[in-house]
């Protein structure tokens, strides 16, 4: 089965991890700051804060901007559940916003209608790896003095109007899960130009304690204070070494992802019933995933039939995502319902994610294209 995504690990990656395993510091040592510096440079931000997952990164961001009981945070319906869950961790309420039909990115035309006195932040999700319209979003957020959070877990290595993803929102969230662009096994990063917020998040990832063990060793002191309620969301040194080593390849990997995506788009241009998502002008798409709507003839009646047909051909298609507001948890606790985000709901019934990862061979790409053309012929 050709999976929809897969990590690439080189001998250099393994050597980098091994070197840390042989050193004195397995966690909270020098590799963390080294990785943070390298990541911040890549993303074009002043600060990068490394944490134990993308979910922890979202939680740290929500905490840093002061989401609490009674807060509302606007979150697109078409995303991974963790985007909304992080608001709930802070006792806040996610307010779900629909997406644009062509791109499945946040529908900013509807944004101001959802802003209330309780709104604490706006979250934009760079769905599939395409950066949102940040100029528009920053304008709206600025008019209402709200922080803009970019869930850029899909978009590392992407660009918007020439600017790197990671420098576009007030807080930018990344995941280092194996299926994402670069990996540390599990891991996450927040980038920001706001040093005060970065400091809050560094304290938050370390139980709310104001100095870490490494700093105390350097300062030859045992004394520390817990000044906030935090968590253990630290990323280990050997994970940071892996992520640093992976970062070296990122630009080449994004380029390879773009080549594969273009091959798909070219092939499906002439295939009935397959519609890749639209591209916005002046962006560089990072293609975490390749998503298309499938709606040929009888096929649009049942996407799940197509799902099984692809799997039977050895093509590991997937669905990203089931709209978050329709999950039983959100229906139960936040009284969300069908019809609330009709574009996301309709898209979710039509989309499939096709395999896309840097180490796919040209033969793999052709296999996917052949399977799509064969299945769409059968079902049209
Ligand atoms: C992967 C992902 C996350 C969560 O990242 P983890 O590292 O798996 O916790 C959050 N939001 C989006 C959009 C993601 O794709």
List the main descriptive attributes of the protein structure presented here.
single chain; 380 residues; alpha/beta; seven-stranded mixed beta sheet; 39% helix; 14% strand; binds pyridoxal-5'-phosphate
Explain this structure to me?
Helix 1 (11-21) runs antiparallel to helix 9 (237-247). The chain contains 14 helices and 13 strands. Helix content is 39%, strand content 14%. 50% of the residues are buried. The longest helix has 19 residues, at 250-268. It has helices spanning 11-21, 30-43, 54-64, 81-89, 111-114, 134-143, 195-204, 213-219, 237-247, 250-268, 303-312, 328-334, 342-348, 362-379; strands at 47-51, 72-76, 93-97, 119-125, 148-151, 159-160, 163-164, 171-175, 188-192, 274-276, 283-284, 290-294, 351-354. It has 380 residues and is α/β, with parallel strands linked by helices. It binds pyridoxal-5'-phosphate. Pyridoxal-5'-phosphate binds next to helix 3 and helix 4.
Question: What would you say about this model in short?
Answer:
The protein is of the alpha/beta class. The chain has helices at residues 11-21, 30-43, 54-64, 81-89, 111-114, 134-143, 195-204, 213-219, 237-247, 250-268, 303-312, 328-334, 342-348, 362-379, and strands spanning 47-51, 72-76, 93-97, 119-125, 148-151, 159-160, 163-164, 171-175, 188-192, 274-276, 283-284, 290-294, 351-354.
How many individual helices?
A: 14
Radius of gyration: 21 Å
Sketch the topology as an H/E string, one letter per element: HHEHEHEHEHEEEEEHHHHEEEHHHEH
Strand order of the largest sheet: 1-9-8-5-4-2-3
- What is the structural class? alpha/beta
Largest sheet: 7 strands, mixed
What gross morphology would you assign? globular
In whole angstroms, the N-to-C terminal distance is 25 Å
* % residues in beta strands: 5-15%
Number of strands: 13
Average pLDDT value?
A: 96
């Amino acid at each position: 089965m050709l999976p929809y995504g897969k990590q690439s690990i080189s001998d250099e990656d393994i050597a980098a991890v091994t070197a840390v395993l042989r050193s004195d510091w397995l966690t909270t040592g020098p590799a963390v700051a080294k990785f943070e510096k390298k990541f911040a440079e890549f993303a074009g931000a002043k600060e990068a804060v490394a944490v134990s997952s993308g979910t922890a990164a979202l939680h740290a961001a929500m905490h840093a901007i002061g989401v609490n009981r009674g807060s509302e945070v606007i979150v697109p319906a078409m995303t991974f559940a963790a985007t909304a869950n992080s608001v709930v961790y802070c006792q806040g309420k996610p307010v779900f916003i629909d997406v644009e039909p062509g791109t499945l990115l946040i529908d900013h035309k509807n944004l101001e209608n959802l802003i209330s006195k309780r709104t604490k932040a706006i979250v934009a999700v760079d769905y599939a790896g395409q950066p949102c319209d940040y100029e528009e979003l920053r304008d709206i957020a600025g008019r209402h003095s709200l922080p803009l959070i970019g869930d850029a877990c899909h978009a590392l290595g992407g660009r918007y109007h020439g600017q790197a993803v990671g420098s576009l929102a007030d807080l930018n969230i990344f995941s280092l899960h194996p299926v994402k662009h670069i990996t540390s096994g599990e891991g996450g990063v927040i980038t920001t130009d706001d040093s005060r917020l970065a400091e809050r998040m560094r304290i938050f990832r370390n139980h709310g304690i104001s100095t870490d063990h490494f700093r105390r060793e350097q300062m030859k002191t045992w004394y520390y204070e817990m000044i906030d309620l935090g968590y253990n969301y630290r990323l280990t040194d050997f994970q940071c070494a892996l992520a640093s080593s992976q970062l070296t390849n990122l630009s080449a990997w994004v380029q390879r992802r773009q080549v594969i995506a273009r091959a798909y788009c070219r092939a499906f241009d002439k295939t009935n019933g397959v519609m890749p998502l639209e591209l916005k002008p002046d962006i560089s798409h990072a293609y975490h995933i390749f998503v298309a709507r499938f709606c040929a003839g009888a096929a649009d009646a049942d996407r799940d039939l197509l799902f099984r047909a692809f799997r039977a051909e050895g093509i590991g298609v997937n669905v990203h995502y089931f709209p978050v507001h329709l999950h039983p948890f959100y229906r139960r606790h936040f009284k969300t319902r069908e019809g609330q985000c009709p574009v996301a709901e309709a898209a979710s019934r039509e989309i499939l994610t096709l395999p896309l990862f840097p180490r796919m061979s040209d033969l793999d790409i052709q296999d996917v294209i052949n399977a799509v053309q064969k299945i769409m012929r059968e079902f049209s």
